[in-house]
Amino acid sequence: MQRLENIIIPKLESNTELNCYWWDGKWYKRKDLLNIISSCENVLRNAGFSRGQKLVVMLRNSPLIPALSIAVWKLGGIFCPLNEKAGLESLTGTLDLIKPFAVIAEHEIPEIAHLWPFLTCSLDSVSLPEFEGKSQPPESDELAVIFATSGTTGLPKAVPLTHDNLRSNCESTHAMIPSISSDDNFLTVLPNFHSFGYTVTIILPMTIGAKIAIAPSFLPPAVTIRAISEVKIDVMFVVPAIISFLLMSVEKGKLAPDALSRIRIICTGGDKLNPNNHVQALKLLGRDIMEGYGLTETSPVICVNHDCETQKTGSIGPVLPGFEYKLKTREGEETDEKEGVLWVKGPSVTPGYLHAPEITAERFDSDGYLNTGDYVRLEKHDGEEYVYILDRVTDIIIVGGFNVYPQEVEKVLAEHPAVHQAVVVGMPHEINGQIPKAYIKLEDGAEASERDIVKYAKEHLAHFKVPRSVEFVDEFPLSGTGKILRRVLRERAAVR
Is 450 left (phi over 0), alpha (psi -120 to 50) or beta? Predict the structure, then answer.
């Protein structure tokens, strides 16, 4: 096993006076990051942090994220980034599963602070406050990161990734996009609790010695626009919702066209890019936008186009080197056809879900291939096999690159006293790709308005999970076996 800190630290130490990261309008040097790493490592060691322990971090992007990651790894521990706004029920369930040594957040969360050692710090901090953690049963020190996610049931689950998983994915992504170099400036704006943002915009550039321009988050977008305007960004990995906003900003004169056109590599993932964005990009920037694809379980990149010039519009690109892949029918039978459900295997794939052998058994076949849950078509171009996503096998809704699991939202809505049953589907949205729509059947004699349902959802769910549209129904469309036909509801939502 080749540990990530043993790749990154020597690069930082090779020339400590070189620029390393841009933060709040200023460039900082490699020695500055090394100092934050050393300080965090000392505080963690004094707190009792040791090999196999897990540190949960609920912070927006800042220099602390790479520094804490490396400090944790140097002590043999595991970095666990979580979304502070995921909702209290989701967070408490995930923490019970992970069992952290301590939790770090920007703000006090009383419901969590009394359960686990809890400390707060600002994004501008260059160290951690002194604290005392609580040792938990250790995990394997081969693990580097644990990402939280939810199953289609909405129940918390966690995806552990090893040092070799992340290293392999970074190396294969770099091999697929060889024009990426150590001289590049990467934009770091995607959330670090998302595998896409963490691996591709933080770990990948650090493993090759490139620089990162850090924005705490995309919203409000002023900091991102400032970073793009002030820093010569060379590489930008983002979700389609960000692309839509930036292209719209160029059209409306809020962002100079050359600020985007000078970016050499613009690549999206997390959801399918709106075809109109390809047209907009060619018109406004004079070139196209690349697409890629991946899963948290694969560290995350599975496919990506090589460059803007050769990318195939509508394709997520060829499969990365190191992956083996095959297609199966929806029923699970292997097929020689060029369409089917994509299954993958390789050094970037998680060893299995954390403390959930039954979920692992459901997603992996006997040969060790992972079911991606996506129905794809393969096409040969220029001697390579390109992948096109045709349909999502699961009912997951992707809002601006974030997964929304219908059953989780339905469970919350069904707890409203007026709701008898709720069914949530994705409906098309020009900016976010999809947004949740709720079909509600009320209890007999009960009354509720669309505003009532949305208000209730906002009080119990993260903002991107809240239905933006509510429709009341007397009955749901059913199949011959009594199963609700979500496909029919999705089609109805798309028409409306």
Answer: alpha
Asked whether residue 388 falls in the same domain as residue 428, the answer is no
341 confidence band (pLDDT: 50, 70, 90):
very high
What average pLDDT does range 170-195 have in this prediction?
Answer: 97
Q: pLDDT tens, 56-97?
A: 999 999 999 999 999 999 999 999 999 998 888 889 999 999
Same domain, yes or no: 349 and 413: no
Query: pTM value?
Result: 0.85
Boundary residue ending a domain (361, 394, 427): 394
Same domain, 362 and 454: no
SS3 category, 146:
strand
Instruction: Please tell me whether residues 369 and 422 are part of one structural domain.
Output: no
pLDDT at residue 478 above 50? yes
For residues 319 and 428, membership in a common domain is answered with no
Same domain as 281, residue 262: yes
User: What CATH number is given to the structural domain containing 35?
Assistant: 3.40.50.12780
- DSSP line for 391-434: EESS--EEETTEEE-HHHHHHHHHTSTTEEEEEEEEEEETTTEE
Give the three-state DSSP class for 495: helix
Q: State how far the alpha carbon of 224 is from the alpha carbons of 199, 218, 240, 455, in Å.
A: 19, 6, 15, 30
Q: Which two tokens stand for residue 228?
A: 């793009």
* Nearest CA-CA partner of 251 in 225, 215, 223, 284: 284
Q: What's the domain range around 438?
A: 397-495
C-beta of residue 232 within 8 angstroms of C-beta of residue 201 = no
Q: Which of 180, 178, 246 is closest to 218 using CA atoms? A: 246
Q: Residue 406 is encoded by which pair of tokens? A: 């219908």
User: Over 70: is that where the pLDDT of 338 sits?
Assistant: yes
